[in-house]
Design brief:
Oligomer: single chain
Radius of gyration: 19 Å
Mean pLDDT: 95
Helix content: 25-40%
Largest sheet: 8 strands, parallel
Number of strands: 11
Shape: globular
Distance between the termini: 25 Å
Strand order of the largest sheet: 1-9-8-6-5-4-3-2
Strand content: 5-15%
CATH architecture of the domain at 4-79 and 121-261 and 342-357: Alpha-Beta Barrel
Bound molecules: flavin mononucleotide
Amino acid sequence: MFSLQDLGAPVIGAPMAGGPSTPALAAAVSNAGGLGSLAAAYRTPEDVAADIARTRTLTDRPFAVNLFVHAAVNAARPAGTGGSVPAAGSAEREAAVARYRAVLAPEAARYGIELPATDASATDGWDAKLEIVLDLDVPVVSFMFGIPPADVVEALHRRGAVVIMTATDDAEAAAADAHGADLICVQGPLAGGHRGTHAVEKTPGRRSLEALLAAVRAVTDLPLAAAGGISGPGHAAQAFTAGAQAVQVGTALLRTPESGALPEHKDSLAGGRYTETRLTRSFTGRLARGLRNGFIDRYDSLARAAFPEDGQLTAPLRARAAAAHDADGLALWAGVNFADACQEPAADIVRRLAAARR
Ligand SMILES: Cc1cc2nc3c(=O)[nH]c(=O)nc-3n(C[C@H](O)[C@H](O)[C@H](O)COP(=O)(O)O)c2cc1C
């Protein structure tokens, strides 16, 4: 069974859905002594199986597969209730999605496309993907956006898999502990990509990663991986001092040769056109941090917290922007310290971060 203690380098390569996480990147991180991750979100189950098989041809070390816990399967709370998000399927929710559809209509017209029908209960192939990670004996399975159901955690444990759950505060960490997590990824405010709040509408707090780690340590004895803005050994050392057993890094790996991020994404991180990041719901309805580009400027103030529907609406727009090499229409996910991301091989980055442990 996988154990953090067995890692030569206490560094987890963050799962990065949407292209950056390739088998080559996951294997490079694992081969350097860390724990590489594959991102199952937005992939078909067949693609996930192929990614796992390919990763196994590149490394014989453990790696993780990450799944989004959509509201329909989230054991943290009933789907879509409470807060400022009207329940999935309610007339109010449908009206909110219809409003955002109208907001995006001119953008769709510009590309000559129709925005798709939305499905609030979509789970992104949850059952099929779980079957794959179980059947293929994936050693580590990590979850984002909530708590997987008890039978899922039990099934993974029966197969000997280690279960990682993501938490953005101490209450979510306590829930992860109570629901069978073996390791908690504590995601702080500087993180790139989606915030892993267990409720869609929640605005995560601004406590520093170090303060967050201390608060989480007070509610659980589980090993912790610290994530968010860790771009060099100084940040990693701070996280280890604050009680983390590992660091999880995403943005730092985006420009590596092994990363599958679009060239426009890699180039934008290198600076010039975009100078800051912004936390926005405009791409998917869930809060996520990306380089502040034209899409965010146009739609951030009009976006609503309807996930996954808003992501379904913007997906074809983002695909068109990608085809047109238009960085201004892409979700350029990035953590606050994106300027430190460099083009080095992933193994060098892992080794540099791991050195902070000594
Ligand atoms: C491009 C990108 C995609 C991401 N996709 C996922 C994902 O699919 N699953 C997940 O658990 N976290 C995802 N994250 C968040 C990371 O797990 C992690 O919390 C974050 O990268 C840490 O902050 P950093 O980017 O400053 O290192 C993503 C982050 C980025 C930058």
